[in-house]
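The data layer described in this paper is built around a simple, fixed record for each protein. Because each token names a local backbone shape, the row as a whole describes the fold. We quote a single record here, exactly as it is kept in our systems:

***
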Amino acid sequence: MVQIFFNICMKVDRRHLDRKKRILIPVQDHPLKSFVVTQRVPRKLSCSQVSDESLEIGLSKTDSLERDIMDPLTKLALQHMDPLSNILKENVEMNIPNFDKPIFTPIQIWNNKKTSILNKYTTSNKISVVSSYLTDGDKIVVKNQNSVVDKVQHRLEQLDWCEETFKKKLELTQAEYIGRIDMLNKELVSAWNSEQRVKAVKIVIQCAKLLADTDIMSFYPSKFVLITEILDIFGHFVYDRLKHIAETKTGSNKVYKLPENFTPDMISDSAKETCLNWFHKIASIRELVPRLYVELAIIRSYSFLSTKEGPDTLFRITKMINGIGNPLAAIYARCYLCKIAQTVPNCNSNSCVLENLQYIIENHHHLFNQGMNAAIKREEISIHKYLDLYTPALDFIMEIIVNDATDDILDKIFNQCLQKGRSSLILNTILSVFKPSYVSNRTVEFLEMIGQCAEDGYPVSGLLCSLGNSLGKYPPSSDQRKPILRNIGKYSNAFHDLDNYISFVEAWMPFIANNFKVREINTMLGDIISRISGRTDCENYVNQFKNIVKIIVQDVEDFEALFMVDNFLPFLDLFQQEIVKVEVCKMILTCCKNDAKITDPMIISSLSFLCSILHDSVDALTPDDELRQIGQIICNIIRKIDYGRDFEQQLNFYVEARGSFANIDSVLIELIQKTNFLMRTLASELP
């Protein structure tokens, strides 16, 4: 058996060798022979392209095999596709960051705002809730319905029953209120998944009713965010349900996928009838606010019926919102409408948003009607905090328009605001949202408007902060910068509230650090020190102080000159907690990254002082990563210290540094190496 198996294997092997001889072709070079490069391919550190003639690589043009196994980096060099060079080219060509270019879609803009709204607008008061939702289960008696009319009538009775019975008033804390809304969200999903459509509608109606209640105004923006999330989920459920019906052929389980830009003539009659039923249900809601919100939530479903119905409904609801008497509830209803308008097919959303903005400007005087003045007194909030409640909605509506607007459109909006009177709230939105280039080119005009703005409760410091943030992104022409700085200096001297002044400095520091010398920075820091000296609440401004230092060290043109002014190091003494001071010192020393040598004794002394703060924070419990980071920072500073030909002074520095930084081994090693190098240099120069 073994012999037979061996003979078979030999035959198979001979056949394989014969076939191999017929297929194989002799080659001149080994396939794995390394490429011979006769000239180095230069890295493209400039924006110019490398010509083909400069790449003389010893590759045979007829040898396709070698090109197939060429490594990716060589291919990139041959194809002039070095990605790092492309990035460098983009950065070199960009002198001023283009803050005017729209980055996000309106939906993304709103999604980015939601977290900050929920964190900012809170309350410690009890929130009253009138509940008509059955948490113990739906107790409606189900009747037999023999006709379509009976079915519709029964469903309407269910909705009416929900509105008229089992109402009770609850007093909830903010956490309990958020938990209840989260519970309703889960109940909505559960009811929909179990095909309890009427129950789902009841939940959505109850949620929408909560938006008509503004008793706790300070929490209203957060409540709006939470509840519109539920409305959006309901709208997606209805749309997906109708789309599924439209894609499912009657009497068959086969699904025909609709295209993204489908038209109503592609929709089956059953899907259209179901769609109409949904809008009839919504039309039966008696109260204005929940009816508008729920219709807006499902307005995208109009695309199953008509291409014009959805856009027409948006403009209809735009006018109907004028019927909402409470200006806070009205502006957030317009905010939701403008957000939903971005999802409606065949809709000129910008014209719809512009019309809503016009209504907001026209109805601005309603912000201080009798009812709102009574609410302000009842909640005991300042006029500034009251006006700030409108900011998220107004900013979002304005951002949609500005996102891709031309200067002509911005001029039109700006002039409309002027014609209706100078409102601090609207002016602040313009300064915050309009393109920085637009604001920068009209800085003098905006400063005059701020000075002439009516005292309607919005602080001048807030307007100046918005202007400063914009100019920090896009500074005005060089001939206007000093007059602008003098003008804002006059305003700052009138700020008696420290909170307003610190916010003012924080907003204007990017503009000052980028466009002026350290003298102006020193003046600002000195003013802060004089205002806060003797106060015991410095810790309240730690985060703002840290941000001010970060802006200065990152944006200042002459980094070393900071240590020559009188107020920079004393400003660091405002950080009283050791952990915070260490963090700030790390930030400052890390920004000292250039290769220039430091020779000035005063600067060397200041840097050594900051390094000693880092060193003294090290103990036996310091993590290895922290110790390594601090060691690298101190070593980097030591390498920059250069006394030139004064070898004795250089050696004295190393000796003092060894005593000051004795607890970090990496620093000691660096000092030993530097000392040895210094001795070798000195020995080489001796005769």
In short: The chain has a mean pLDDT of 81. The CA atoms of residues 326 and 372 lie 8 Å apart.
